[in-house]
What does this fold into?
Amino acid sequence: MDAIDAVLVDFGVTPLKIIAASATPFDPVLKQRIAALVDHAGSVALDELGQLDVALGSAFAGAANALLQTAALSPEAVTAIGSHGQTIRHRPDLPYPFTTQIGDPNTLAESTGITVVGDFRRRDVAAGGQGAPLLPVFHDQVFRSDGEDRAIVNLGGIGNVTILARGAPVTGFDTGPGNRLLDGWIAEHRGVDYDADGVWAATGTCDAALLGELLDEPYLALPPPKSTGRELFNLPWLRHTLGPSGRRPQDVQATLLEFTAATVADAVLRHAPGAALYVCGGGAHNRALLAAIARRVAPYPVASTTVLGLDPDYVEAVAFAWFAQRTLAGYCSSAASVTGARGARILGGIYRHA
Ligand SMILES: Nc1ncnc2c1ncn2[C@@H]1O[C@H](COP(=O)(O)OP(=O)(O)OP(=O)(O)O)[C@@H](O)[C@H]1O
Ligand SMILES: [Mg+2]
It folds into this structure.
């Protein structure tokens, strides 16, 4: 929810080429309304949900049209838009499991004049899967190596890992919080969106007892396939563990940084021992977080996906462009080995521009 990421990708060349890319910050009012929808789902009216769906589709179109202008291309030059949408609820655990992304693809198609592929997750959930993470199949396509086992870690709101072990099918799962808790805590105490480079966390001291309690969260010990969201890792969850203690806020931030690093490092050490670790997503810019992960997985190396040829800020957006291409070609792009579904599926719905 920090920005609308957009990339224009050419898949006609190998390796794929990013022609243009942008990150458009959300309009603050729109962002606040989406946050209210996500955090107070029980008290938001259906009319508000319906309108936000369309408002977001329209904002996505704005980002796509601006990108075309930057690249001096007309809509006819683009085969399709792959649009993940904004996740507002992810509940694969309920008796009638579901996951919901908004950002109306119909509005996006109408306002760009381009065919849209959207709604990528729900078919996998219908097939008995977690609907997440989806990125591993894309990572498998672009990051697999014959020379080393690799773990690709995406640090968005939630963290997820892809394991690319030589001679084995791709696996992956959500590790726990990515930036979500770090962002939430600093927003509450310092009024900023995120802890740039982990500088504020570095002014505090990790509280080992608190870290231990956070690591007791049962989700972390569950075997894959598994996925999570801000339904679990949120500030009320943190406050529940904190209790009425008088800890300094910067010490809590330092502890959250170690906690986030530990969830990632433990996942890699347990499921891909010896793998080289490559990081993408906005968290790849958090130097203190990367250093904490590196300390925990040493001597195995940690680097950004930049060294593999893909900017960490745009891996996700490129992935959904790739998924759109797969869907239009009639190929599956989920992996049962990742999500636990009954099988691989062609993902998403197609909203054709006539
Ligand atoms: N210099 C930096 N220092 C620390 N954190 C950073 C820095 N730059 C970006 N971030 C983090 O990256 C986040 C944005 O990352 P990203 O766009 O991958 O997350 P997201 O949009 O929530 O992703 P997702 O939808 O995959 O959950 C910011 O909210 C912030 O926490
Ligand atoms: Mg983002």
In short: DSSP finds 14 helices and twelve strands in the chain. The pocket of magnesium ion (ligand 2) is lined by residues 2-3, 5, 282 (CB under 6 Å). The two ends are 31 Å apart (CA to CA). Residues 46-71 form the longest helix (26 residues).
